[in-house]
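Q: Could you fold this chain for me?
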Amino acid sequence: MPVPRLAVRAVIVEEGRLLLVNAFADPAGTLWCAPGGGVEPHASLPENLIREVHEETGLSISVGAPCLVNEFHAPERGFHQVEVFFRCRLTGGTIRDDWRDPEGVVSRRRWVTQAEMAALRVKPDSLAAAAFARGMGYDPLERLVSP
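A: Sure. Below is the predicted structure, expressed as structure tokens.
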């Protein structure tokens, strides 16, 4: 039985807009998510998140409190990922079209309002509520979707 993969994601809201990135490397993909990714051993969750956000966006952040725990799974593939979302604040950098993710996954970044999110495919389903509300959420075993 595979062990669940642990990931961290950043909820960065500036001037009423949330930062999203493309969820899959496929340029035709329409799924969006919060920046972040898999946790590497021997580094804290905030250290991992700072690294991931910089790799994907070129931005520097400070990491605050957790605001959402989400689980994705695809039982037919043996995939199970637990994601911890943290409220984060920008400390440096700007979104640039020429920024390159070293892993080649993230190629698009955008700031969206809560109303704009309603017209997008965004995962997890509870991201908008977590981003634009207070408190902590838990979204158990959400089915993984394809690009």
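A (continued): The domain at 5-143 is CATH 3.90.79.10 (Nucleoside Triphosphate Pyrophosphohydrolase).
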